[in-house]
Specification:
The complex is a heterodimer of chains A (about 280) and B (about 270). Chain A has one domain. Chain A contains 14 helices and no strands. In chain A, α2 runs antiparallel to α12, α5 packs antiparallel against α6 and α11 packs across α13. The longest helix of chain A is centred in the C-terminal third of the chain and has 42 residues. Chain B has about 270 residues and is an alpha/beta fold. Helices cover about 35% and strands about 20% of the residues of chain B. Chain B has 11 helices and 9 strands. In chain B, the strands form 2 sheets. Chain B has a 6-stranded mixed sheet with strand order 5-6-7-3-8-9, sandwiched between helices. In chain B, a hairpin with a 1-residue loop joins β8 and β9. The longest helix of chain B is centred in the middle third of the chain and has 14 residues. Chain B starts with a helix and ends in a 9-residue tail after the last helix. Classes of the chains: A mainly alpha (about 280), B alpha/beta (about 270). Chains A and B meet through α9, α10 and α12 of A and α1, β5, α4 and α5 of B.
């Protein structure tokens, strides 16, 4: 048991562990909508667009989450508005904004001294640098996301499954669509320190995709995804500690491995069973 | 302001008792107009500027209408107008005397290829979605909602399917589930987009039995179909459409060679069974 407990004698590892559990749960639950609505590219892009916000907050000495949150919500709404006009296709709009803002972030950061170390932290996370304040912010934002999903559960289900039904039921479909985009932005902020910008999409997509192979209803899919996300966080952190590898990639590798296992061996939909 | 209003308002608008169930008055939809609405329309073919032109007809409560016409005749656009996702460029669409957008009594059964059948929902979940407008925001389904869902499933002959994932159903079963959803929605105007396509004869028969069973409740049914024989045999009226109304009335009056030639052109589409 020593090998399990030893890392926990370091308080920064305990904080990292708690953060990765929260992030695993929140990303995976919201990720079910990302997977079901086919928004993986949007999620990946949104993660990249928050970089300028993070850099500005970093340079001014503000909390990184604040800069990320402002930038994330701005671009989420911006992409939503640009694509709903129908002038350019949605994935084109995303591509333009994604690359442009990311370049802006890298350019701003490259003007400062400790360029490569800081950029690596933003890109791949800095799980072992989670402060107590960071942890509370993560927890608070995570609860906001989960509560909102709970409150709008049946409405999000309708707009994701059948947008025309949402219209005939006179649901506030546009409001719900933007709300979902904002929730994705907040979730990305929550996960920033754990997996970083570059690997964010893995936490949004992979646990939910794994759960989709194992379940047949939305609520159980969310539950299983949350368990997979949290477990990936815990196992990934231990791997990082003992193998001395970067924590963000370790978490993502664990969740990817779980997906491959489910893809091969899932009771009904696995490749193995289908022959 | 708009958002707050739509958040608090989940009830159906008042139906005018004297008004017809559905009325289109001189309605035209330009292709470009779709882009301003919530749904984008395909680019027009050369020379064709309107998806629908000067469409004018009235449907009374309890009637069963078949909408027939060639591909691209504007059947889907017509349904979108009635649902309210496409706005008319000119003219007026009214449902029970009001514009469509206040109503939650319009049940829409989509074409099967518009649904993601791998979605993680059971039959019961899908039918419960029909209740969401009446349950309202920040509330969970109550016992009454579950009873209505069970009752709707039974009326559509799908009670035994309740726990199945929707991807495990046959084509006929899928249609029943979506009709059950419209019943759970307490729809009084039911729109079915190509529900007969790909169904075998027993499944078609079962579908008409369900539609017969809702007739005493005054439910009005509008069905888009390619099957002229069924349109002739099983509907009160036929709307022959090709961008505009070629003919509208009893099947015997509408399905005449000169009207069909006008709608379909010289092709051999008429005997399609």
């Amino acid at each position: 048991m020593d090998w399990l407990l030893e890392p926990l004698s370091y308080s920064f590892i305990v904080r990292g562990l708690l953060a990765s559990i929260i992030v695993g749960v929140v990303c995976s639950v919201l990720g079910t909508y990302v997977v079901l609505r086919g928004m993986a590219f949007f999620g990946d892009a949104l993660a990249h667009t928050i970089l300028p916000g993070v850099v500005v907050a970093f340079l001014l000495g503000w909390p990184l989450a604040l800069g990320a949150l402002v930038m994330g919500i701005l671009t989420a709404v911006g992409i939503g508005a640009l694509s709903s006009q129908g002038v350019v296709k949605e994935d084109t709009a995303i591509g333009v904004i994604f690359a442009g803002t990311f370049a802006l972030g890298v350019a701003m950061l490259s003007a400062t001294g400790n360029y490569t170390v800081d950029l690596a932290h933003f890109l791949f996370g800095n799980l072992l640098g989670v402060s107590a304040t960071d942890l509370w912010v993560t927890l608070g934002l995570g609860i906001v996301v989960l509560l909102t999903i709970l409150l709008f559960y049946k409405e999000f289900l309708v707009i994701s499954f059948d947008p025309t039904l949402a219209v005939t039921l006179r649901l506030p479909a546009e409001f719900l669509r933007y709300l979902l985009l904002v929730l994705i932005a907040i979730t990305i902020v929550v996960a920033l320190q754990v997996v970083g910008i570059a690997l964010m999409v893995a936490m949004l997509v992979t646990p939910a995709a794994t759960a989709s192979l194992l379940t047949r209803r939305l609520a159980p899919m969310m539950g299983v995804a949350a368990i997979i996300g949290a477990a990936s966080g815990i196992v990934g952190l231990y791997l990082s500690f003992y193998l001395n590898i970067a924590s963000g990639p370790a978490v993502v590798l664990v969740t990817t491995l779980l997906f491959v296992l489910a893809f091969l061996f899932a009771p009904q939909r696995g490749l193995w069973r289908r022959g | 302001m708009n958002v707050v209003m739509s958040l608090t308002k989940s009830r159906d608008v008042v139906h005018e008792p004297a008004a017809p169930t559905l009325a289109l008055q001189n309605v035209s939809v330009a292709y470009a107009a779709g882009a301003q609405g919530t749904t984008r329309q395909p680019r027009p073919a050369a020379g064709a500027d309107y998806a629908l032109r000067e469409v004018d007809f009235t449907v009374e409560a309890g009637q069963r209408i078949a909408v027939v016409g060639p591909n691209g005749a504007g059947k889907s656009t017509l349904f979108k107008l009635i649902v309210g996702t496409v706005k008319p460029t000119e003219g007026l669409v009214t449902v029970y005397g009001h514009g469509p957008n206040g109503h939650i009594c319009i049940g829409y059964v989509p074409q099967r290829n518009q649904i993601d059948w791998s979605f993680p929902v059971t039959v019961e979940d899908v039918v419960m979605m029909g209740r969401v407008g009446r349950i309202g925001l920040f509330r969970w389904p109550a016992r009454r909602d579950r009873e209505i869902v069970a009752d709707s499933l039974a009326r559509a002959g799908a009670a035994h399917l309740a726990g199945r994932q929707i991807g495990e159903l046959s084509g006929g079963q899928q249609q029943r589930v979506f009709i059950a959803r419209a019943l759970a929605q307490e729809a009084s105007l039911l729109l079915l987009d190509e529900p007969l396509t790909g169904l075998d004869l027993p499944s078609q028969e079962a579908l008409f039995e369900i539609l017969d069973s809702v007739r005493p409740d005054g439910v009005t049914v509008v069905v888009a179909t390619h099957d002229l024989n069924l349109a002739a045999e099983r509907f009160d009226k036929v709307l022959l459409l090709n961008k505009r109304v070629v003919a509208f009335g009893a099947a015997t009056a509408v399905l005449q060679p000169h009207f069909l030639l006008e709608a379909y052109g010289g092709g051999g589409v008429i005997s399609n069974r």
